[in-house]
Amino acid sequence: MSNSMLISRLFLFCVLIISTFTVSAKDFMVSYDGFYDRLKVVNKGDFQYAQVNFYVTDIASGKPCLIDSGKIVTETRELALSYTEQAQLQLPFDKQLDTDKAVVVLTPENSTYDCQLKMQIEAQEFNPKPLTRAKLLTMHNEFDELLYDLSGFFVSKLMSFLLPEQQGVVLTFAEPVTINDAAFMCDGAVCNVKVDDSWEDDIASLNISTPVLKVTPWIVK
């Protein structure tokens, strides 16, 4: 098997397109077991920040595939599907749903959407005040550990050279920022931050007043 084929089976660095299929011109359907397997990995870890979040996006535009309605269905029951206005799915970690071969079904607001499901490693909702280098290092290390865990034994143990290289973290702010720090490479509201192990005890505030919307891994392919 070629390296390119093996790489295609990796975690796709931070974003994983989970196998999905449509059940009609509008409805979109995906098996719950893919969610459960990944949530189980997160729940087994000891993470302060890192988690996996699931989003539905339009393939053509990459924008949120806004949801009109949704549900989780098994042969014997039907549950309401929780989601945000930005098409983030908020799924329960439920062994019984996995055992019952549950299926997640949603109806997009726009019937022209060609939806796909993405999984993103990111920091859970938090208000890191003060934002410090030590906290950024903690997030970086947790992202790296979670990516390693999600890659599975075969890749992480036997073919670790195929894992992507994580340089640091990506901060997405509520508005464009200018940060005079060599570790921060900012373009508008997004900053790639080169994290260093020496930051472990650096708890001094970075004095950045602009709110952080999300923190994700900085992956170099």
In DSSP terms (H or I, runs of 4 or more residues), the helix count works out at 4
Specify the CATH architecture of the largest domain: Sandwich
Computed Rg = 19 Å
Query: What fold name goes in the CATH topology slot of the largest domain?
Result: Jelly Rolls
* pLDDT < 50 stretches: 1-25, 153-161
Could you spell the SSE succession in H and E letters? Answer: HEEEHEEEEEHEEHEEEE
Instruction: State the share of residues found in helices, binned by percent.
Output: 10-25%
Q: Could you tell me the mean pLDDT?
A: 83
What is the beta-strand fraction? 25-35%
- What's the CATH first level of the largest domain? Mainly Beta
Order of strands across the main sheet? 1-10-4-8-7
How many domains in all? 2
Oligomer: single chain
Derived from helix and strand composition plus strand pairing, the structural class reads: alpha+beta
* Rough outline: globular
Distance between the termini: 20 Å
Number of E-type strands: 14
Task: Write a concise keyword list for the protein shown above.
221 residues; disordered N terminus; 4 helices; alpha+beta; 5-stranded antiparallel β-sheet; Jelly Rolls
